[in-house]
Design a protein that fits this description.
The protein has 171 residues and is mainly α. It has helices at 3-25, 39-45, 52-72, 86-106, 109-129, 158-168.
C-alpha cells in the first residue's frame, strides 16, 4: 500500500469507529454494508448520506496532501525520518497536531486537512524508515504524537549502528 491508500483506509476506518460509537450513545444500530468500505457506504451507514460527496472530497484533500510531501519536501530528512532525524520528525508531527487543532477551532477546515495530510505522511514514514517493527514492536509508538514527551526512546537496535559503521569502515 502507498501513502494515499493507507491514509484513505485510515480515515474510513476511524470514521466508521466514531459513527459506531455515536450510534451506540444515541441508541441506534450501526451496520456497515457488505463489501469494501467507501465514503458513500460509510456516509449511508452513519445516517449522513447527503454528505458523501463532501466526505469524499475531504478524504481526497488529506490523501493528496499526504502524497505531495514526497515532492514538496523531497530533500527535507525530518519529513521522512531519514538520516535518523527522529527528534525533528516527531516535532513536525506534534507541531502539526497543534496546528490542526487550532485550524479546526478557527473553522479553517481546509488548512486542518492540509496539515493533517502532511503529518500523516511523516508519521507513516516513521514506520517505514525506522527499525520500529524490526525491533519487535507490534503497536504504534506511544510517544510520536505527544508533545509532552521529549525522548521517543530507542527506535534502532543497539547493534544496528555498530554494524553499519563497522561494515562501512571495512572492519
Amino acid at each position: 500500500m502507498d501513502h494515499l491508500e493507507i491514509t484513505r483506509e485510515a480515515i474510513l476506518q476511524t470514521t466508521a469507529q466514531v459513527c459506531k460509537q455515536l450510534a451506540s450513545v444515541e441508541g441506534r444500530d450501526f451496520t456497515l454494508p457488505p463489501g469494501p468500505l467507501t465514503a458513500e457506504a460509510l456516509a449511508l451507514a452513519c445516517s449522513s448520506s447527503g454528505s458523501a460527496k463532501s466526505f469524499q472530497s475531504a478524504i481526497s484533500d488529506v490523501t493528496w496532501r499526504n502524497g505531495g510531501v514526497d515532492f514538496r519536501h523531497l530533500f527535507n530528512e525530518e519529513y521522512h525520518f531519514d538520516g535518523e532525524r527522529f527528534v525533528e520528525g516527531r516535532k513536525l508531527i506534534t507541531d502539526g497536531l497543534t496546528s490542526v487543532k487550532a485550524s479546526v477551532k478557527r473553522g479553517n477546515f481546509e488548512a486542518a486537512r492540509q496539515t493533517l495530510g502532511d503529518i500523516l505522511h511523516t508519521l507513516q514514514d516513521f514506520y517505514s524508515h525506522s527499525n520500529w517493527i524490526e525491533l519487535g514492536n507490534r503497536f504504534p509508538h506511544p510517544d510520536l504524537i505527544r508533545s509532552d514527551v521529549l525522548d521517543i526512546g530507542r527506535v534502532a537496535g543497539i547493534a544496528r549502528a555498530c554494524v553499519w559503521v563497522c561494515v562501512k569502515e571495512g572492519e
